[in-house]
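hey m, so remember when u said the tokens were messed up on ur end? i reran from scratch. heres the input so u can diff it against urs
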Amino acid sequence: MTEIIPRLKLEHIYKSFPGVQAVNDVSLEVYGGQILALVGENGAGKSTLMNIINGVTALDAGSIYLDGQAVHITSPRRALELGITMIHQELALIPELTVGQNLYLGREPRRWGGWIDWSRVYRLAQQELDRLGIDISARAKINDLSIAERQLVEIAKALSYRARLIALDEPTSSLTSRETETLFRLVRMLRAEGVALIYISHRLEEVFELADRIAVMRDGQLVGEGSAEEFTPSRLVHLMVGRELAEFFPKSSTTRGEPILRVVNLHSGKEVRGVSFELHKGEIVGMAGLVGSGRSNVARLLFGADPLQKGEIWFEGKRVELRSPRDAIRLGIGLVPEDRKTQGLFLKQSVRYNVASVLLQLLSRLSFINFRAINQAVRQLVERLRIRTPSLSQQVRNLSGGNQQKVVISRWLALNPKVLILDEPTRGVDVGAKAEIHALMNELAAQGMAILMISSELPEVLGVSDRILVMREGCIVAEMTREDATQDRIMQAATGQL
């Protein structure tokens, strides 16, 4: 019987950074024509391992084999030459250029005399897109494409290098369910063509839908590996974080208080068209719907970030005008935005700066800043939310996604808001941090805070919410109790089938 040679074989890989053993004696095999799901919490070592494979990070010790041959991957260019590529969660396309220009950037075919043969660039790019069944023009600008279309262009770019191994990092984090289906079709097609795929995702339902094999990392080590059939969701979570699956939606019963926020017939462009609902003290209201249904636009209206064209907003029994976020903050309304990196954080600033940015006026007198009080307040919040950081001086961009999200939340907790709006609170966050954020939401609701949570993850909506609103095309089309809601009913309402 002929032995199957793995496309990629890692033997006893080690990598350390000052004070951290990021990868500790990891041996792993990835086969052509298979999808290996690599899972683990943020900080488990997945990204470091992928950076080693892609030549971004040099390993300290160990061996790498590609189709049975020992290789030294010294740079990303060398990885590409070997047919290894990585599609990152943060896409690496140049928005101002066309699809074709991005696909062949730095390796454009040339005419006699050294001039770029643009007609050939676009012809080759269109052939690649057509081969993959991607309905995008090679002459379209990246700026004009949706996030999903950009993700597909990244895959086309990777395959234009004739990649033998592709690693995908959280590829569906910004996609709708329909766009996710398109991506899955493409991934399965690549598997059928013999490409080896490493699929990194925090969404366990995707792991079980796609993966042939699963590898689990925790604290820099490989703690589990095998065929997908050998795992259950509970076993997978337990390997990742040492906790059972039931702990990830720790819903506790709370007493719903009086209405605190009431909106009547809100209108804003085509995105919000006649939205009305109430939010009570001590309850978590989940807002579901497809991307583009108007959910985030409602959140921005309630935070004063977008102008209200028509309608009424009532807060604690009084009609209010929200002309800016400052008005909302004064009332006691906080917003954790959908995109924490561009809208919620000062990435190059410290944890202390990010949390304390809302406290400066409260903890200052006569233009003098009380640094001792600020440090004490920030430290208490960091401990309360279990934000994992070496120090308060650590730059936020160096924290994991879950800890970044908790920094954004802690900023609002410093002001003790009466209403907290959470837009995709656990996007790109590992399962352990998700559980902590869900537990925090329950704790805040039990203390009387009203929470509006927008989420594209239906298990999260069903597991955390007391009441669920469903939006479609700028309108609320359904309201369900926690007991009556199911994934099918929510999707039927969101797609107009209910």
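this time it looks ok to me. Residues 200 and 386 are 25 Å apart (CA to CA). if urs says something different then somethings off w ur setup not the seq
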